[in-house]
Amino acid sequence: IMMSDKLDALGRELHKLREEQEENREKLLAKVNQEKKQYMKHHAQVLKTRSKYIRACKDVEKLVMTREKSLERDSDKLSQKLENAMEEVGQLQAVHWIGCTTFREFQRCHRYALEQIMKELEALVSIVGPSIVFF
To answer: Where in this chain does the entry annotate a coiled-coil region (predicted)?
Structure first.
Protein backbone atom coordinates (compact mmCIF):
# COMPACT_ATOMS: atom_id res chain seq x y z
CA ILE A 1 0.00 0.00 0.00
CA MET A 2 2.84 2.42 0.81
CA MET A 3 4.47 1.79 -2.56
CA SER A 4 1.18 2.43 -4.30
CA ASP A 5 0.75 5.70 -2.41
CA LYS A 6 4.26 6.79 -3.36
CA LEU A 7 3.65 5.92 -7.01
CA ASP A 8 0.37 7.80 -6.93
CA ALA A 9 2.05 10.86 -5.39
CA LEU A 10 4.87 10.70 -7.93
CA GLY A 11 2.32 10.41 -10.74
CA ARG A 12 0.47 13.49 -9.50
CA GLU A 13 3.75 15.38 -9.16
CA LEU A 14 4.80 14.37 -12.68
CA HIS A 15 1.41 15.39 -14.05
CA LYS A 16 1.71 18.75 -12.32
CA LEU A 17 5.22 19.26 -13.70
CA ARG A 18 4.08 18.39 -17.22
CA GLU A 19 1.20 20.87 -16.96
CA GLU A 20 3.65 23.55 -15.82
CA GLN A 21 5.96 22.58 -18.67
CA GLU A 22 3.13 22.97 -21.18
CA GLU A 23 2.14 26.37 -19.72
CA ASN A 24 5.74 27.58 -19.83
CA ARG A 25 6.14 26.25 -23.37
CA GLU A 26 3.05 28.17 -24.48
CA LYS A 27 4.34 31.34 -22.84
CA LEU A 28 7.71 30.94 -24.52
CA LEU A 29 6.12 30.30 -27.90
CA ALA A 30 4.01 33.43 -27.41
CA LYS A 31 7.23 35.35 -26.73
CA VAL A 32 8.75 33.93 -29.91
CA ASN A 33 5.71 35.00 -31.93
CA GLN A 34 5.79 38.47 -30.40
CA GLU A 35 9.49 38.79 -31.23
CA LYS A 36 8.81 37.66 -34.81
CA LYS A 37 6.06 40.27 -35.21
CA GLN A 38 8.31 43.03 -33.91
CA TYR A 39 11.11 41.87 -36.18
CA MET A 40 8.84 41.89 -39.23
CA LYS A 41 7.53 45.36 -38.32
CA HIS A 42 11.04 46.80 -38.07
CA HIS A 43 12.10 45.03 -41.25
CA ALA A 44 9.12 46.52 -43.12
CA GLN A 45 10.06 50.00 -41.89
CA VAL A 46 13.63 49.59 -43.14
CA LEU A 47 12.38 48.39 -46.52
CA LYS A 48 10.03 51.37 -46.73
CA THR A 49 12.78 53.91 -46.00
CA ARG A 50 15.05 52.10 -48.46
CA SER A 51 12.47 52.29 -51.25
CA LYS A 52 11.87 56.01 -50.58
CA TYR A 53 15.61 56.62 -50.71
CA ILE A 54 15.99 54.67 -53.96
CA ARG A 55 13.00 56.45 -55.50
CA ALA A 56 14.47 59.84 -54.57
CA CYS A 57 17.82 58.86 -56.12
CA LYS A 58 16.08 57.86 -59.33
CA ASP A 59 14.20 61.17 -59.36
CA VAL A 60 17.51 63.01 -59.08
CA GLU A 61 18.94 60.98 -61.95
CA LYS A 62 15.91 61.87 -64.10
CA LEU A 63 16.27 65.55 -63.24
CA VAL A 64 19.96 65.50 -64.11
CA MET A 65 19.20 63.87 -67.45
CA THR A 66 16.38 66.35 -68.11
CA ARG A 67 18.66 69.25 -67.24
CA GLU A 68 21.36 67.98 -69.55
CA LYS A 69 18.87 67.53 -72.38
CA SER A 70 17.33 70.96 -72.11
CA LEU A 71 19.64 73.71 -70.99
CA GLU A 72 17.18 76.35 -72.07
CA ARG A 73 15.36 79.14 -70.29
CA ASP A 74 14.02 76.63 -67.73
CA SER A 75 17.50 75.72 -66.53
CA ASP A 76 17.06 77.83 -63.37
CA LYS A 77 13.86 75.97 -62.50
CA LEU A 78 15.53 72.65 -63.24
CA SER A 79 18.52 73.64 -61.14
CA GLN A 80 16.22 74.50 -58.24
CA LYS A 81 14.34 71.21 -58.65
CA LEU A 82 17.63 69.36 -58.75
CA GLU A 83 18.86 71.15 -55.64
CA ASN A 84 15.63 70.35 -53.80
CA ALA A 85 15.77 66.73 -54.93
CA MET A 86 19.38 66.39 -53.77
CA GLU A 87 18.41 67.82 -50.42
CA GLU A 88 15.55 65.32 -50.17
CA VAL A 89 17.94 62.48 -51.07
CA GLY A 90 20.26 63.58 -48.28
CA GLN A 91 17.42 63.65 -45.78
CA LEU A 92 16.08 60.27 -46.90
CA GLN A 93 19.56 58.81 -46.78
CA ALA A 94 19.89 59.99 -43.18
CA VAL A 95 16.47 58.57 -42.28
CA HIS A 96 17.33 55.27 -43.95
CA TRP A 97 20.69 55.12 -42.17
CA ILE A 98 18.98 55.70 -38.81
CA GLY A 99 16.41 53.04 -39.68
CA CYS A 100 19.13 50.55 -40.61
CA THR A 101 21.09 51.28 -37.44
CA THR A 102 17.97 50.89 -35.32
CA PHE A 103 17.09 47.68 -37.14
CA ARG A 104 20.57 46.24 -36.57
CA GLU A 105 20.26 46.99 -32.86
CA PHE A 106 16.80 45.43 -32.84
CA GLN A 107 18.17 42.34 -34.63
CA ARG A 108 20.84 41.99 -31.94
CA CYS A 109 18.23 42.27 -29.17
CA HIS A 110 15.90 39.91 -31.03
CA ARG A 111 18.66 37.31 -31.42
CA TYR A 112 19.52 37.60 -27.71
CA ALA A 113 15.85 37.23 -26.71
CA LEU A 114 15.47 34.13 -28.86
CA GLU A 115 18.65 32.64 -27.36
CA GLN A 116 17.25 33.22 -23.88
CA ILE A 117 13.93 31.63 -24.85
CA MET A 118 15.74 28.60 -26.27
CA LYS A 119 17.78 28.26 -23.06
CA GLU A 120 14.55 28.32 -21.05
CA LEU A 121 13.03 25.67 -23.33
CA GLU A 122 16.12 23.49 -23.00
CA ALA A 123 16.01 23.88 -19.21
CA LEU A 124 12.36 22.86 -19.22
CA VAL A 125 13.13 19.78 -21.27
CA SER A 126 16.02 18.82 -18.99
CA ILE A 127 13.80 19.10 -15.90
CA VAL A 128 10.81 17.06 -17.01
CA GLY A 129 12.08 15.37 -20.13
CA PRO A 130 11.21 15.73 -23.79
CA SER A 131 7.62 14.62 -23.34
CA ILE A 132 6.32 17.42 -25.54
CA VAL A 133 7.65 18.04 -29.02
CA PHE A 134 8.75 21.65 -29.43
CA PHE A 135 8.08 23.60 -32.62
So the answer is: 7-38, 68-95
